[in-house]
Write a structure and sequence with these properties.
Bound molecules: UDP-4-deoxy-4-formamido-beta-L-arabinopyranose
Strand content: 15-25%
Largest sheet: 7 strands, parallel
Helix content: 40-55%
Structural class: alpha/beta
Strand order of the largest sheet: 3-2-1-4-5-6-11
C-alpha cells in the first residue's frame, strides 16, 4: 500500500488518480488545510476506486503510528505541507513547524515501522536565483528567496543526511516547476483558499469575473517580452512523474539497490506571463483584462527545467502542451462556478 500525505490537495489528488488507475492500493493523511473532503468523492468518481482517508496532521505521530499499524505501507509519497510563497514570509514559524517538523515526525514513524521508501515533493525554489538556465539537478543551490523555499531545501538536506546515515533508504526528491491545469474531467483542480498567489488560478478567476483584472508583476525582466518566464507543467504530467518515481524504487528494490535520486519535473520550455495570458485567451476564446504593475518581491526573471535526467532514468515525458494546460484550467474553473464554488 502507498501512503500519500496531503493526498487530497492539488497535486496529491491528481497523483492519487494516477496510482489508483495503475492498480495501487493507497491511503491518505490530510489535515484539509488547503482542500475539502469532497475531493475524495471526485477521485472515486474519476477512478471508480475507493481508498481510506485519515483526517489529521503529519505532526500527529499517534495518528501516523495508527496508519502504519492498520496498513502495510510499502512507500510514502509526501506532499503534505504549506506552500504559499508570499504567506511563508508572513507566518514563517507555521511553515517551519508544519513542513519541517511535520516531515521529521513522518520519517520517525516510517523508520519505526521499517518503511524506508519515500518520494518527496520538492520544488524548483530550492535552486534560488540562477544565471544559467535551463536548470540541472547538479546546479549548486543558491539561497532560497523565501521561507517556503527554505523548508523545501531543509527537508532535502534532512533526507540527504538520513540516506548518508542509513543507505538502505530509497529516497527520490522531485523538484517541481510550475504545476498548472486540471484533470480533463474538470472534477479536480487547483482551488486555492482566498486570493490566489499563483498565476493560473488568478487568470481563471479573472476570466470568470471573480477578479476585476490580473496584475502582471513587472515588465522589465531580462526575458523576451519583459515579463517573468517559468516552466509550466500540466499537473497530470507531474502526477505521472510520481508513478514513474515509485516504479523506479520498486525496480531498485528488486535489484537490491537503495539510492537517493533527484529529478526535475518540468517541460524544458519557458513561457512568460504574457505568453500564458495570450494563450489562455486564444484557446478559450475569453478575455482576461490585465494591467502591468511593479515586480513582486522575491520573483526571479527566468526559471525553467532541464528534464533530461527524469526522461533518461524514469522514462518521464510530458504529454500535455500549453493549450491543454489553459483549456483544462478553464474547464475546472467553470465547473467550480457551476457548482456554486462547492467543487
Ligand atoms: C509565476 C509568474 C509571477 C501571479 C511558486 C513557488 C513554486 C510553486 C509555484 C508551489 C511569476 C507572475 C503571478 C500574479 C503575475 N509553488 N504572476 N501575477 O512564483 O514562479 O512559483 O509557485 O508548488 O514552488 O515558488 O509561481 O504562479 O506565483 O508566478 O504576474 O497574480 O507569474 O511574477 O513571474 P512562482 P507564480
Amino acid at each position: 500500500m502507498i501512503l500519500v500525505t496531503g493526498g487530497l490537495g492539488y497535486i496529491g489528488s491528481h497523483t492519487l488518480v494516477e496510482l489508483l488507475n495503475a492498480g495501487y492500493d493507497v491511503c491518505v493523511i490530510d489535515n484539509l488545510a488547503n482542500t475539502t473532503i469532497d475531493v475524495k468523492d471526485k477521485i472515486k468518481k474519476i477512478t471508480g476506486k475507493d481508498f481510506k482517508v485519515y483526517i489529521g496532521d503529519i505532526l500527529d505521530e499517534k495518528l501516523e503510528n495508527q496508519i502504519f499499524e492498520e496498513n502495510k505501507i510499502d512507500a510514502v509519497i509526501h506532499f503534505a505541507g504549506l506552500k504559499a510563497v508570499g504567506e511563508s514570509s508572513v507566518i514563517p514559524l507555521e511553515y517551519y513547524r508544519n513542513n519541517v517538523e511535520g516531515t521529521l515526525h513522518l520519517l520517525e514513524v516510517m523508520k519505526k515501522h521499517d518503511c524506508k521508501s519515500i518520494v518527496f515533493s520538492s520544488s524548483a525554489t530550492v535552486y534560488g536565483s540562477q544565471e544559467v538556465q535551463p536548470l540541472k539537478e547538479d546546479a549548486p543551490l543558491m539561497d532560497a528567496t523565501n521561507p517556503y523555499g527554505r523548508t523545501k531545501r531543509f527537508i532535502e538536506d534532512i533526507l540527504k543526511d538520513l540516506y548518508k546515515s542509513d543507505n538502505s533508504w530509497h529516497i527520490i526528491l522531485l523538484r517541481y516547476f510550475n504545476p498548472i491545469g486540471a484533470h480533463e474531467s474538470g472534477l479536480i483542480g487547483e482551488k486555492p483558499n482566498g486570493i490566489p498567489n499563483n498565476l493560473m488560478p488568478y487568470i481563471t478567476q479573472t476570466a470568470i469575473g471573480a477578479r476585476e483584472y490580473l496584475n502582471v508583476f513587472g515588465s522589465d525582466y531580462k526575458t523576451h517580452d519583459g515579463t517573468g518566464v517559468r516552466d509550466y507543467i500540466h499537473v497530470c504530467d507531474l502526477a505521472h512523474g510520481h508513478l514513474l518515481a515509485l516504479r523506479k524504487i520498486e525496480k531498485d528494490k528488486e535489484r537490491n539497490i537503495a539510492k537517493l535520486d533527484i529529478y526535475n519535473l518540468g517541460t524544458g520550455n519557458g513561457y512568460s506571463v504574457l505568453d500564458i495570458v495570450n494563450t489562455f485567451m486564444k484557446v478559450n476564446n475569453i478575455n482576461v483584462p490585465y494591467r502591468i504593475v511593479d515586480r513582486r518581491p522575491g520573483d526571479i526573471d527566468c526559471c525553467y527545467a532541464d528534464a533530461t535526467k527524469a526522461h533518461n532514468e524514469l522514462g518521464f515525458k510530458c504529454e500535455k502542451n500549453l493549450a491543454d494546460m489553459c483549456k483544462d484550467s478553464w474547464n475546472f474553473q467553470k465547473n467550480i462556478k457551476d457548482d456554486g464554488g462547492q467543487n
